[in-house]
Amino acid sequence: MSQQNLNIFVLPTYSTLTLAVADGSKYNPNPPSSPTLEISAPGFDKVIIPFQINNVNILNSTSLGITSGTDALVPLPDGIYQMKYSVAPAYFNNIERTIFKVDNLQERFDEAFLKLEMMECDRAIKTQQKVDLNSIYFFIQGAIAAANNCAVADANKLYNQAQKMLNNFMKNGCQCSGTNYVTNFY
Fold it and tell me: Is the model's pLDDT at 82 over the cut of 90?
């Protein structure tokens, strides 16, 4: 008796413009026909696209139906992406995945982090900014972990908190007092 195991996983692309979905399936003895990936990006209609088996499939705003083929690519929205990988014949089971894409927020976090090293602040303020960035990073990772465990409401709540904290951090720059660090860690 042959074993058939479908599996897909998302790889980091380090780009806000793309999403990489890899096939990690075991096809024995013969590969399937008609592989498709049904995917919904946050705020957009579900699309069904051909899926290349034993390969990494790179998706963008055009393939996800966000832009047309004549438009320039745009950053993919952050949020919950739901995927369903299906193949024929029927002895394969479908597989579903839910991921939380945070590349846009991560890009802004990286920008804030790089600015931290260039700011000319006193030690307490610079240390406070590191504490603030660590807290923001903690919320981003919490959002991802919550989504990976099907806690969508918690994921959105944590993501929104990270975004709020990052907006405040970017707006205030080197204006913080450093008192949180001095009070809690010194």
Answer: yes
Asked whether residue 20 falls in the same domain as residue 36, the answer is yes
β-strand pairing of 79-88 with 56-59:
unpaired
pTM: 0.79
Neighbour-count burial of 156, counting CB atoms closer than 10 A to its CB (0-12 exposed, 13-18 middle, 19+ buried): middle
Q: Where a domain ends, among 101, 119, 140?
A: 101
Of 76, 101, 126, the residue that ends a domain is 101
Distance in angstroms (rounded) separating the CA atoms of residues 186 and 183: 6
Domain that holds residue 134: 103-185
Give the lowest-confidence range in 61-65, 151-155, 169-173. 169-173
Q: How far apart are CA 32 and CA 7, in angstroms?
A: 13
Q: Domain count for the chain, please give it.
A: 2
- Mean pLDDT for all residues in the chain: 84
Phi and psi, residue 50, nearest 5°: -60, 145
